Amino acid sequence: MAELLYKTKGDKVIWTIVLFLSLVSLLAVYSATGSLAYRERGGHTEYYLLKQLFVLVMGLVIIYFAHRVNYTIYSRVAQIGFLVSIPLLMYTLAFGSNINEAARWIRLPLINLTFQTSDVAKLAIFMYVSRQLSRRQHLINDFKKGFLPIIIPVGIICILIMPANMSTALLLGASCMLLCFIGRVPVRFLASMVAAGVVMVAMLFLIASVTGLEMRTKTWQKRIDNFLHGDHTETPYQVQQANIAIAGGGILGKGPGNSTQRNFLPHAYSDYIYATIIEEYGMVGAFLILAAYMLLLLRCIRIYRRCPYAFGAFLAVGLSVTLVIQALTNMAVNVQLFPVTGVTLPMVSMGGSSVLFTSMAIGIILSVSRNVEEMEGKRAERERIEKVMANAENAAVA
């Protein structure tokens, strides 16, 4: 154990945040799934708790091994990951498992498990964009040679994700645009891509309405209409139950395991787990969760500023940005500041592939942090030796 702790490097604050969110996840998932497990698993109320514990432990193992790898290796993996993501997403659209009227999952035949291919694509595209930004800094003001090779792969991935999961595609595109902005891409280039994205989404709705093809456009339109124009009689059921849960939480909440809306709130263990947390732990608990993600972003910005190499810097800030944007979106949906999206809360919501790929992203961030600390440690040691030698020479002269 001592040797394992000795080999565990990287930003200690990020490690603490991961452990904190994992603990919150276990408590919230156990509370939100107790009655569900009792009904579906014949009284075995700990079933989903044990399942989530297993997934989180696997996630910590992935974080540990990912952070031990030199982050420069992920630059080579990025190209392979991007190329693999395209056929995976295409296969998902054609043959993926349909859950909630959307083909987002692939079922592995031998072990009978499902995973979201968009999770693979998100991780791969951020590594790929970080690689391209670091390699094309000298061409970044050239639209054809500098910007298009970066943004075209992003567009391909977002277009393939959009038919089944528009919210994920839009968040992914926004996160990549923000990373490009951090990477010194001219604002006029980014503005042109935003305009192109708006036109593409409008065309998608137009094609669906003209041809009658079912591309989930009706679902998206209904969610937006309910958010913008709905009154208390038209508010979606899950939003009503989330509002009741939040109102019942107050300042300090009802206490762990005392949620009542978990029995009525759809997906209280995934999409609406933040509302469950607020009901049980109140505004104090809600603030602690928000503060944890904000602190994660600040620590990653610190890594970005300290990293001497562009790829590592872009990798750390890019992966952290997408995790925090996803978290803020989930929390905004739960408190009715954003239309219903189906986006989960990273490292907290119950899940399988989402937790594992989030863990991989955090492991990569910690890999960058570990290498930065090692370089700074070597530099400090070299400066110490030089100072000692200089003092010895001065003493000899004296």
From TrEMBL:
GO terms, molecular function: lipid-linked peptidoglycan transporter activity; peptidoglycan glycosyltransferase activity
Question: What family does the database annotate?
Answer: Belongs to the SEDS family. FtsW subfamily.
Among PANTHER family, the record links this protein to:
CELL CYCLE PROTEIN, PEPTIDOGLYCAN GLYCOSYLTRANSFERASE FTSW-RELATED
Instruction: Give the transmembrane ranges.
Output: 13-36, 48-67, 73-96, 150-182, 189-210, 272-297, 309-328, 348-369
Under the cellular component aspect of Gene Ontology, which terms does the record hold? Answer: cell division site; plasma membrane
Protein name per its UniProtKB record: Probable peptidoglycan glycosyltransferase FtsW
Superkingdom of the organism of origin: Bacteria
Main localization of the protein? membrane
Q: What class of enzyme is it?
A: transferase
Q: What processes does the entry annotate via GO biological process terms?
A: cell division; peptidoglycan biosynthetic process; regulation of cell shape
Q: Which organism is it from?
A: Chitinophaga terrae
Tell where it localizes: Membrane
- UniProt-listed Enzyme Commission number(s): 2.4.99.28
**Protein keywords:** Cell cycle, Cell division, Cell shape, Glycosyltransferase, Membrane, Peptidoglycan synthesis, Transferase, Transmembrane, Transmembrane helix
Q: How does it sit in the membrane?
A: Multi-pass membrane protein
Describe the reaction catalysed, as an equation: [GlcNAc-(1->4)-Mur2Ac(oyl-L-Ala-gamma-D-Glu-L-Lys-D-Ala-D-Ala)](n)-di-trans,octa-cis-undecaprenyl diphosphate + beta-D-GlcNAc-(1->4)-Mur2Ac(oyl-L-Ala-gamma-D-Glu-L-Lys-D-Ala-D-Ala)-di-trans,octa-cis-undecaprenyl diphosphate = [GlcNAc-(1->4)-Mur2Ac(oyl-L-Ala-gamma-D-Glu-L-Lys-D-Ala-D-Ala)](n+1)-di-trans,octa-cis-undecaprenyl diphosphate + di-trans,octa-cis-undecaprenyl diphosphate + H(+)
